[in-house]
Amino acid sequence: MTVDEIFEMACSATLDTEGRVLTKIPGDPGEETYWGISRRYWKSWVGWQYIDKYKNNGRIPEKLAVALIPAVKKFYRTNFWDRMGGDEVAKISPNVAIELFDTSVNLDVMDAVRFMQTALNMQNIGGSTYPDIVVDGRNGKNTLNTLKRYLTYSPGCFTDNEKILLNCMNGEQYIYYKNNPRHEAFRGWFRRV
C-alpha cells in the first residue's frame, strides 16, 4: 500500500466520523463545521466562500458537496497529515499513521504526537530498551526512529507491539479528555478513541 492510499484510508475514516455534512451544533466551540472543518478555527479555508454562496437552510447542493471533496482532502492533508509527518509514519506503520491522523484532527497535531511520544516512553522498560525521547509534540527523526525501534523490538512481534502502542495512545487521549471537562458535552469524540 502506498502512503497516498494510506492517507485516503485515514481521511475517509476520519471524515465518516466527522460527518460529511454542514453542521452547526449548539455549544460546539468550532461553531459551524463542514466535514469537521471548523469555521471558527479555519476561517480562511477556501470552501467557506462557496458554502456561503450556495447554502440554503443549512444545506448545500449535492453538486457543491462533490466539487468540494478535493478541497476538503487538500485541507486535511496540508494541515494535519503533512504536519504530523504522515508519509513517514505510514511507511513504518499504517495503523499508527491512521490513529495519529484522526487524533490530530480531533484534538491537535502536537497533542497527538505527544500521546505517541509518551506511549513510546512508557514502553521502553525504564530506558533500557531505548532512551526516552523528548515529549515535545514534534514528530522528528528521533521520534520516528524510536517508533521503528519499538515496533520491531523483541520479545513480542510488530503486530503485538503496534496494538500496545495504539492502546497506550488511546489511554493518553482518555486522560486528556478527563482533564478537560468541556469535552463532556461532545461524547461523540469518545467514540473515536
Overall description:
- The chain has 193 residues and is mainly α.
- The chain folds into 2 domains: 79 residues, no CATH class; 97 residues.
- The protein has a 3-stranded antiparallel sheet, with no helix packed on it.
- Helix 1 packs parallel to helix 5, helix 2 runs antiparallel to helix 3 and helix 4 runs antiparallel to helix 5.
- The longest helix has 21 residues.
- The radius of gyration is 18 Å and the shape is elongated.
- The mean pLDDT is 88.
Helix content: 55-70%
Proportion of strand residues: under 5%
Number of domains: 2
Order of strands in the sheet with most strands:
1-2-3
Number of DSSP E strands: 3
Count of helical regions = 9
Q: How far apart, in Å, are the first and last alpha carbons?
A: 24 Å
- The mean pLDDT is 88
Series of H and E elements: HEEEHHHHHHHH
| Rg calculated over all Cα atoms | 18 Å
Looking at the structure, what is the overall shape?
A: elongated
Characterize the largest beta sheet: strand count, sense, and whether it forms a barrel.
3 strands, antiparallel
Return residue spans where pLDDT drops below 50 for at least 5 consecutive residues. none
Structural class: mainly alpha
